[in-house]
User: Fold this.
Amino acid sequence: MANIYDGVFRTILNDRRKLIIPVINEIFNESYTGEEEIRFFPNEHFMDQQDEADRERITDTNFTVYGNTPKKYHIECESSLPDGKIMIRLLEYDAQIALDEGEIMKETLVVTFPNTAVLYLRAYKKTPDKMKYVIITPGERYNTMCRS
Assistant:
């Protein structure tokens, strides 16, 4: 069933790109006018598994809005009961999106994670208002917020 919703969501965004602007403005507190260029990127990613065959993951959206500063976005459309697994998928998707445009500079991998949100189609008692994941590296701590 989820694939039906995912397909409809992708079709709406591809056919009516400007409809996503008010959603982005609301979720991320942006002030886009609707005149900005929106460029979509491939949704298919192959997750490298160390001891297994690569696994294909398909994001619902992966696009950049070219305003004053280009900003990358990733929005998932979710129809199922929140069970915490979406957080794992978001991290996998976001890491792969970041790696797609990452670069190595002086033995340092530099990646930029997209602005990410989940659009829940149904509200349950367990549906969160906000989610976040924390990435901890030796000696440093980074917080990345995901809004729903």
